[in-house]
Amino acid sequence: MRLPAPGWNFEMLPFALKKLLFYAYKRGMMSMFGCAFCQIAAHKKPADILYEDEHCLVFRDIHPKAPVHLLVIPRKHLVSLNEGSEEDKALLGHLLIVVGKMAKDQRIDGTGYRTIINTNAEAGQTIFHLHIHLLGGRILHWPPG
Ligand code: 5GP
Ligand code: ZN
Questions:
Q1: Could you give the strand order of the β-sheet that contains 56-60, starting from the edge strand earlier in sequence?
Q2: Which of these, 123, 130, 62, lies nearest to 96 by C-alpha position?
Q3: How many whole angstroms from 135 Cα to the centroid of ligand 2?
Q4: Which of 10, 68, 90, 125 is deepest in the core (most CB within 10 A)?
């Protein structure tokens, strides 16, 4: 009987290397290897940016699902809310304040808007850099699919 060809997997790496990779991932260092939103934040990838400050930026979603569909992202590469910690308390609060300001700016504060944060694959997260969707300008049904 033929044995399956030996394949590479993460488990085979020595423990110290695994720890190092995990640490680098958590600290956001892996983002330098191609996170689209880090690249937008660094102005290395084009985007329709409507607002930016020291901590965050806001740009239009490339595939809008509503007349207003903005993404609010921290400059810091946080993968998702799963990574949120006490250290990020002020940052996460700041993102929500910016959402409110953008809603006013886009004149959807009166009619209504929805904020969404997808976390991991089953919730539909496709970009693994934390982002808040801000949707408005049409009637949004409930519950979402
Ligand atoms: P998620 O599915 O992770 O919650 O949301 C990712 C969102 O980012 C999607 O709505 C997608 O259309 C948007 N998106 C993905 N890549 C880009 C990009 O390169 N530029 C912009 N502006 N939006 C993007
Ligand atoms: Zn990133």
A1: 49-52, 56-60, 68-74, 132-136, 113-116
A2: 130
A3: 21
A4: 68
